[in-house]
Automatic annotation (TrEMBL):
Annotated FAM65 N-terminal domain residues: 1-294
PANTHER family noted in UniProt: PROTEIN KINASE PKN/PRK1, EFFECTOR, RIPOR FAMILY MEMBER 3
UniProt-recorded name of the protein: RIPR3 protein
Family: Belongs to the RIPOR family.
Amino acid sequence: RSCSFTGFSTVQSRKLAKSLSRSSVRSRMSLKPPKVYNSLQKGALIWDPKPLQVKKIFEALKKGLNEYLEAHQAELDYLSGRHKDTKRNSRLAFYYDLDKQIRSVERYIRKLEFHISKVEELYEAYCIQCRLRDGATNMKQAFSLSPSTKASRESLVELYKNVQECTEDMCFIEGALEVHLGEFHVKMKGLVGFARLCPGDQYEVFVRLGRQKWRLKGKIETDDSQTWDEEEKIFIPNLHEKFEIKVTELRGLATILVGVVTCDSISFFSTKPQAIVVDITELGTIKLRLEVLW
């Protein structure tokens, strides 16, 4: 491996380093400082890009956005058909109201199309930086295995800088991509436990997504219904974190852990509300029902 790069000239290596440097995404894109992004906030700075995870989120996000686009395009086609019929029948007031609806849907479709194009642009830039980083990393490994000379040491320093710069750019793009992930509206639908749930039992459910937290308490009533002090919470999705759900039973001053589970959010990028049933105990004797609307 080292032999194939031993003859790589200093001029060539410096040209590669300069080309990598010129490809910096921040020199071509206007990105906000990292403090505005969930994954780049102070105390949660991630300098370890995860291309496979980003790819999964990107594909799920694009699929969800296209679902919304198709749904609104179908609505526009329906309204346009009614618009033509109304024009022939000369029902003027209804015609203008319908025309107003059509314009509103058209504006929303344009916003969706821009949203999709922005997400695609960011992901394309991310892939470019990922390939550049991989190339610079391979070159750095090859130079480190070759005989040490002044030229190879200088090239190693330049390549190390380029790897760091590409890594930083990937992290900035991940933060920029997070801005386009929307919101998850999570609704509490209650616990399912059959014989495990008895009137008077009290439970606490703790849901965490990164630094976002939701803690709510519930009670099993005498008619087997459930009352919870909160019913809905909005979470801002991010690329690196999964939902963590912990359920504890409250018995006086004591608390008994029922179970802790994690839940991936990739399937939540959908136009339809997603009904989620999570096994809290290993045997599934107690389940938690949630509904997620994106």
